[in-house]
Amino acid sequence: MKQLLILASLLFLSSSLSAQDKKIPKLVIEKGQTYVVGPENTLFVDTLILEDKATIQFAPDRQGVLETKVVFVGKDCLITSRGANGKAGKNANPGTDGENGGNLSLVLPFVDLGGLTIDTRGGRGGNGVYGKKGQNGKEETRDVRVTDANGKTTVSTVTVSVKSCTDGGNATMGGNGGHGGNIILLYSAADFIPVFNHSKSKRNINILYQAGTRGRNGIPGKGGSLCADGKLLHSEVREAKNGELMLVNLEQQSQALLPEAIPIGY
């Protein structure tokens, strides 16, 4: 929390200096469109208009900053720096780790608000490999007829070849989830009160900053008859952490910290 307070103080200093040459007078992101922030991962806008289902995409690998003087937000809009999900394992490799969510610092003086989601969740770990089932051993036989000196014929079954059983294949573990990114949201709304984390309410702001979940471990393959089962190959396990959130109402100059992340399914 202390680090977030320091970042909030630095935000105004850095943004006011940086925005002088890079500020956009007006930016309209049309319905259903995605605006990808440039390589510096900062966006300074006098007037920002997000039409319904518009998205602003920040890179998750570095600090993202969005500062506006006024913002109009339609329904089901999204500001995100969510980390990418890991990839499923291949061969004898575990699933890859989910990417960490990026930290976001946002200054949003709302003039109108339909519904907005701010998402800095970590990516989900990739699933591990399932081991293949082993094959059972198999004997190949044939009948042999033998006639003795007295003319009596007997039939014997003899083994002519043997196919060995095979072990079950090894499985690998799922990848670690990515850490959730931190969010600093400085906001104001003169004519209405935003509702936080109630997606069915009007004028809602849903804030997601959870860690990504681990990928699913594979299951070792069952060995063929008289052969060994496969094993689960272990890899490094790291606990993914939720991000932190600080809300600052610019009108009231009050601060509120949500105590814990609200679980959201993937």
UniProtKB/TrEMBL annotation:
Q: Which UniProt keywords apply?
A: Signal
Q: Does the keyword Signal apply?
A: yes
Annotated segments matching region Disordered: 124-143
Q: Where is the signal peptide?
A: 1-19
Would you tell me the protein name for this molecule?
A: Collagen triple helix repeat-containing protein
Species per Swiss-Prot/TrEMBL record: Pontibacter chinhatensis
> What lineage does the source organism belong to?
Bacteria, Pseudomonadati, Bacteroidota, Cytophagia, Cytophagales
